[in-house]
Amino acid sequence: MMEVSASSVSLREFGCEQTLLSRPDGSASFVQGDTSVMAGVYGPAEVKVSKEIYDRATLEVLIQPKVGLPGVRERSQEQCVRETCEAALLLSLHPRSSLTLILQVLHDDGSLLGCCLNAACMALMDAGLSMSCLFCGVSCAITADGRIITDPTAAQEKESRALMTFAIDSTERRVIMSSTKGSFSVHELQQCIAVSQKASEKIFHFYRDSVRRRYSKNL
Amino acid sequence: MAAGFKTAEPLEYHRSFLKENCRPDGRELSEFRTTTLNIGSITTADGSALVKMGNTTIICGIKAELANPTVDAPGKGYIVPNVDLPPLCSSRFRPGPPGEQAQAASQFIADVIESSEVIETEDLCIDRGKLCWVLYCDIMCLDYDGNILDAAVVALLAALRNTQLPEVTVNKETSTPEVNFEKRHRLHIHKHPVGTSFCVFDDSVLIVDPTAEEESLSTAQLTVVTDEDDRLCSLHKPGGSSMSGEKLQECINRATARQREIQKLIEKVTHSVTTAQ
Amino acid sequence: MKDTPLSNCERDFLIKAIEEKKRLDGRQTYDYRKIKITFGTDYGCCFVDLGQTRVVAQVSCELVAPKESRPSEGIMFFNIELSPMASPAFEQGRQSELSVKLNRQLERCLRNSKCIDTESLCVVSGEKVWQVRVDVHTLNNDGNLMDAASIAAIAALSHFRRPDVGIQGEEVTVFSPEERDPIPLSIYHMPISISFAFFQQGTFLLVDPCEREERVMDGLLMIAMNKHREICSIQSSGGIMLLKEQVMRCSKIASVKVSEITELINKALFNDRTARKAGRKCGFAESLPQERITALKTDQSEVEMTDVSERASDIIQKAEAPPPMAASPVLPAPGVGQVGHGLQNTWGLEEDEEQEEESSGEEEEIKMEEEQREKDKTTEAVVEISDSEEEEVVILYPETTKKPKNAGSSSDQKGAAASKKRQKK
Lengths: 219, 277, 425
Prior knowledge:
A: Ribosomal Protein S5, domain 2; 4 helices; C: Ribosomal Protein S5, domain 2; 11 helices; 23% strand; extended
């Protein structure tokens, strides 16, 4: 069985800025290495009659690519982000209203879906929406020789044999979302999940730090 | 009484069954609906298959066309899958451009084809940089009763097994392709990916092969795709309630059993056609 | 989602303030808000902050066949995307009036002014040319999107480098940035659009209106000009009449503003170039403001990997292993196979006992229906009373050769399901 060397398993430097846009109710930009995503949240606001749900809020997620118009790939990513947010948000607190989350890709240097999830979570926090748990996105790549790389760059993604992105929840560190590419063994999958759970600790710690820093002067 | 209960409190109705470890249609929690497969259903297509899982019905037709390879990959052909969910199959779909579910399903099928390497795209190349095959895989839902992803993968796989491509030679003098329809050969299928879908009820109860009603009442859905070497080609869980690694392992093991079953089915049905001819 | 409407009281207040030559943010009449230009990691990616208004422009290129009318010219394509992020009033995928207006103005400003040498974008005449695409995404709309978009677009175009190409016979090879240094576009001049808002039928004028001011303005004049004081386009909208002197005055103000902004763009380009040359990082992580309390950054961090492999094996071993044998499929006919004995479909493909039972339940329903129908029929003069439901069904399905019982059960799924439940009770 392939052992994983520790050197490859690291998260790139990451950072986040909240409340950087004046118009949206909540906004955040999340940077992981060179990958960068900006997120804006509007709502709860009035909803179109056709999209109204009687017992909870309707969540819409839009992912805007940097070049060109959104295509089928963005649609499937939107679905992943939307259902992850739906799992975390307490939507039943705002029946018959709409929430809109817009994600603008600013630069893609690998782990894009993971970065989108992190930006989305920070923006939802900034908008002050009630959530049952927080979530974060972690991407793992498996190289041709079976090593695991967390938070891969675009070049590492291209050379990898398989790529997985997980959304991990903050309460029990379980998997909310999983999206994979390429083929891999069961053992590799379980390893990646375990690594992602470990990596998620770092990101949740960062969430905590940034919120603490943000409210440090309000008292 | 039961009908009224079902309409008024659909979730409670399902829960009352799940408590007894069975489902409203009489199945156990980890039991699939009867899967019926018919191949060669469309004579005008180069390959086709019809799959029924309970009421869910999916038909897949494969059309092969000649085209120029892309500049980035001169030695490869390409496969273009498309999942269509017409208003015919369920009242939840409206006419017009494909909705989100259809687009997500198309993307899922495309990912499965790419990840599992069911077909080596190099096999589709006829003349490097000049000529290659394009396989248009049109997957259409005729009756929507949940779990279309599993049915679509089975239909696609069976249709690819059924596909026969005519022989093409490139005329040296005129450099035009000549198609010999008399001489056909089968595609080389490298892997047999099979999907297994699950639904989670109330964040805890796991059921397999959900119907449309179960899908709409569940708190999470996931699809596991495995091939014959027990490798995973996809673990697609768009969201919903969170699951531990142990729970996911349960799903994977169920999916492995399902893969064997379906591969055997496809194997036998393909064999029955060749012997009948 | 709709935009929040402006109240009358706010409107009156704004107009009154403008009449008193005061602006909400403390600016003077001819002042621009603070402009910040930053570049991304990629070539041709530019962010512009105009006060709170934010846009990002990205230039990309690809090889395409040229237009037949101009076989030796590259193609320029501009697109301003009014993303819903910028304002709740913007909708995804809908061509609004504003979006058409902005796109048109940007095209006139940058394409029709011939500020970019399109002939240098030709690779093989009549066969392959570069298509340069400029995508401008709005991130936050606080008024005057046009000026921000035009600054972002021209700065991004000046920053952009296209890959070098080599031609050998008919083969065109595109070199990656590692093989050969990419080439900048040749830009003759930099047209920049300057917006003027008019209030009270043209009595009052403001430069660079913010979103609130845009809402109460009567008309808008956009002048695109380069630093050589050449006007590239003038567009007036909103239906106000302007005097010749007013337009002249605006163009004079524009010339001052344009030279200021051009200098700013050049300075930003120069800074970026020196930073890149020095090999310093110029990505987004660097542009994150460190001093704000809403921003936080961490360094690269290792993930502990000690018991990961053990945990994974543990989970796999603990789980119940899949059964080694699979159920054997049944083949009712060549080309058809079936596996599993779970729920059958209700199509009536197989006639098994259960369905027979179901249809007996079905019959009751049909009978009841029939009684109803018979009651109706008695009111008519000619009565054709059918004595069995078989006939009734045959009339309904004159072409079916199947047994009517079966047809009945397959025609009504819900009824069958309901009757099944009745039997269970």
